From TrEMBL:
Its EC number is 3.1.2.2. Residues 189-210 have a biased composition (Pro residues). This is Acyl-coenzyme A thioesterase THEM4. It is a peripheral membrane protein. Belongs to the THEM4/THEM5 thioesterase family. It comes from Marmota monax (Woodchuck). GO terms for biological process: apoptotic process; fatty acid metabolic process. GO terms for cellular component: mitochondrial inner membrane; mitochondrial intermembrane space; ruffle membrane. Its main location: membrane. It catalyses: (5Z,8Z,11Z,14Z)-eicosatetraenoyl-CoA + H2O = (5Z,8Z,11Z,14Z)-eicosatetraenoate + CoA + H(+); dodecanoyl-CoA + H2O = dodecanoate + CoA + H(+); tetradecanoyl-CoA + H2O = tetradecanoate + CoA + H(+); octanoyl-CoA + H2O = octanoate + CoA + H(+). Pfam families: 4HBT. InterPro entries: HotDog_dom_sf, THEM4/THEM5_acyl-CoA_thioest, Thioestr_dom. The keyword Cell membrane applies.
Length: 241
């Protein structure tokens, strides 16, 4: 709590208070209602564990430095190798911390990429500090760096660089839902190759008549079938008359 004493650092409130306003803005401007199912049962992933079993953390934000500090203790339900925190859990919290930094500094944004270098494993139930800072802004691109260290700052556990894309209300999911979820997020990045549709063949008017082949003549019935019929068939025809 000493981070808050001089007023330069602000302790971020609980996730419900943090996301209540942002979620309403996101839902209003960017979310396609047809893509949302079961939202009333949704929970923030990092807060979905029972106390002490998963992610236990608190974040502080410094607006002047555009920086977020996260104090994290990981519980036993996030174990990877015996006695150590799972790498995916570390990546989750690094993404969450850098994302909080990007959104606080630049507005609602989403992850475009996150590159992590794992240095040393983190023992379960130990406390670490995730330090994230906004490095630069290029248009809608927000570049954020991050590292995970022990509380005494002697051990570097992980470091990462991240790119976030600030959402544009004029290119929202509501307007471009048919183009796929990530279309507008990655504008400004190298676009994928355009898919050129194959043109449909033009209809042929009055197609030319095919000249009958010799085999077609053999398959056609002869007008003199009665002359070439065997005697037994001729007798049957006479009796039927």
């Amino acid at each position: 709590m000493k981070k808050c004493e001089d007023g330069s650092w602000k302790r971020l409130p609980s996730y419900k208070q943090i996301f209540s306003k942002n979620f309403q803005e996101f839902q209003t401007l960017y979310l396609d209602p047809s893509l949302v199912k079961g939202e009333e049962r949704a929970q923030l992933f990092t807060r979905s564990f029972e106390n002490g079993l998963g992610f236990e953390y608190v974040m502080f934000y410094n607006d002047a430095e555009k920086r977020v500090l996260c104090f994290l203790q990981v519980g036993p339900h996030l174990q990877g190798a015996p006695g150590f925190v799972h790498g995916g859990a570390i990546a989750t919290m690094m993404d969450s911390t850098t994302g909080t930094c990007a959104c606080r500094a630049g507005g609602i944004a989403m992850t475009a990429n996150l590159n992590i270098n794992f240095k040393r494993p983190i023992p379960l139930s130990s406390v670490v500090v995730i330090d994230s800072q906004l490095d630069r802004v290029e248009g809608r691109k927000l570049f954020v760096s991050c590292n995970v260290r022990s509380v005494d700052e002697k051990t570097l556990h992980s470091e990462a660089s991240a790119l976030f894309i600030k959402l544009d209300p004029d290119k929202s999911l509501r307007k471009r839902a048919d183009d796929g979820f990530h279309t507008f997020l990655h504008e400004g990045l190298p676009p994928p190759e355009a898919v050129v549709p194959t043109p449909a063949p033009s209809p042929v008017l009055n197609p030319p008549q095919r000249k009958p082949a010799d085999t077609d003549l053999l398959e056609q019935p002869s007008k003199c079938d009665s002359q070439n019929s065997p005697p037994s068939q001729l007798l049957n025809k006479e009796h039927s008359l």
